[in-house]
Amino acid sequence: MFEVRVETNFSSAHHLLNYKGKCENMHGHNWKVEVVARGCELDKSNILVDFKTLKKIVNEIMDYLDHKDLNELDEFKNESPSSEFIAKFIYKKAQEKIPQVYRVNVWETPTSRASYFEIEE
After folding, report:
1. Domain map of the chain by residue range?
2. 67 noted as active-site residue
3. Which CATH fold topology does 2-112 show?
4. Does the annotation count 7 as an active-site position?
5. Single pTM value for the model
6. Does residue 94 contact residue 31 with C-beta atoms inside 8 Å?
7. Tell me: the pLDDT tens digits for 3-16?
């Protein structure tokens, strides 16, 4: 099994719905994002997924999220844009173009991370 990972970041504001506490108020984060692809098969160049391709797709997603109020984006309307939900959003968008995407990790602080991946059945 092979894995490749890319890291990036974006800044955005959000507030949590159905939550009692400080995070129900508008606030922002400098999010760190890690996208992991994995697989058993390499191409003719012995590459699982070209880093350049993976970075391009991930950066397109980051550009969409960067410096936005996440609650105002269509994909987050009436949803609480938690770190977990953001990780799932990034995963689904990345996997549309790169099926080997296996996991997305999202840090809202240097010590608080949420992950999304799907269990293979």
Report:
1. 2-112
2. yes
3. Tetrahydropterin Synthase; Chain A (3.30.479)
4. no
5. 0.94
6. no
7. 999 999 999 999 99
